[in-house]
User: Fold these one by one.
Assistant:
Number 1:
Amino acid sequence: MLHGITVQLEQKTEIGRDDFNRPVYSTEYINVDNVLVGRPDTSIIVDTLNLTGKKIEYILGIPKGDTNNWTDRKVRFWGQEFRTVGFPETGIQDLIPMDWGMNVKVERYG
């Protein structure tokens, strides 16, 4: 049976404004269970590198029903830190087989 790992996802909460009226955030990490981690194919790596200048390391399969914000977030797994790239890719959840309904690309960070 296919199963994923637990990853830690950065969550930001606005706690106020600075002197220039920009938001100030507190950061905490939450656990997200059953996330698949896969290697992207070469064309995805090259296309993203050419378009954004960022090298995709992994593609994460996010479980169906997950409501977390995966855009521009840090993700930790396997003792390393990554940052999400671009927007999550999703489809019609009921038409996607298995337990994962969204893909998120990540680059190595830090």
Note: The helical segments are 42-52.
Number 2:
Amino acid sequence: MLLTCKLIDIDRYQREVMHCYAGDTDIGSLMVQTGFAKDFPKYSKRFYSSEQTFAKEGMLGIWK
């Protein structure tokens, strides 16, 4: 499976903020939806807000 990433931004610590896919699967979406990552609106423009709501309501991952 091919992993592809696109640079979105550089954060205040000079880390690259990327949007990555494994094939057709959005890795960020999967991580946020399962509660293993948070949506950071400063960089995502709330791109993953529905996934985060799903994880919070389901008390998944970090939201337990």
Note: The helical segments are 27-33, 41-44, 49-57.
Number 3:
Amino acid sequence: MHLNEVASGLEPLDLTGSEELASLLTSAADLGIAHSKPSRYASRNTVVRHERLHFLEWGADDAPPVVLLHGVNQSSHAWDLVSLHLADRYHVYAIDQRGHGDSEWARDQDYSRDAMVADAIAFIEQQRIERPIIIGHSMGGGVTLALALARPELARALAFVDIAPVRTGDGGREIREFMERNVEFDHIDEFVERVRKYDPFRPLEHIHRTARYNLIRRHDGKLIAKSDRVLHEHDRPRGTPMSEITLEQVGAIEVPALVVRGEHSRVVTPADAQAFVDALPRGRFAEVAKCGHNVHTQNTPGFLEALRPFLADL
């Protein structure tokens, strides 16, 4: 059973009058995030490559398109505050990647970078999204990078949030360990407390407001992580690694690109980020203070401050 509102079929579910949006507006007010009343905020499903993908759609049809790709064990809702801020100027598509959020779990258990890249390309083509700005965080940033190399004509611009092709930080291990240890919960407060200890940058009330998007109620009453159980297994089959892209290959990306690093990130070191920026022909760098790896959720105002001038220059 879902804890959040989600479209049950192919018809969009309008969320502009929902309690969930009201909760999001409270968080935006707490953080001082500017926004207009969204003209569209909808939960939607589609089928691409024989998989059902869920996505959130914001903004007007004729606005410039933005595609958002989340990190591992996260969902499209990780971008809610960002989407709310952008929705008055952009047509935003925030995708639940396969096995995450409210999308279908992959029947072949293929969660490789290549599979996710193929999903993203198929989604963009199916929805007839022309030259989107693609913003990817962590795992989603790896997908964005591989997509840009595979289909260089597809995107207008790119933003990579706390990801780099060469990473020497040890924060990836911490993420894997958190996922392996946090799969089932008796009560939502148990989940919130574990997230609070893992993520000291986010206010407790904001973790409470967003917990519903990470959990689903099983038939026995237990709350379980929404992401596919296999993703939480220590020895899961990993398919094509998210790395294996070289800095030399990055030099082929000709569109404007922004690399964003969290000040306290343990995944991407300052040297990793700088090497990535230097390899990009049109690369720019921004470091966001008072956050770690999950830049856009841990310091959303700081992330938007870094993103705005990049978007304005496009």
Note: The mean pLDDT is 94.
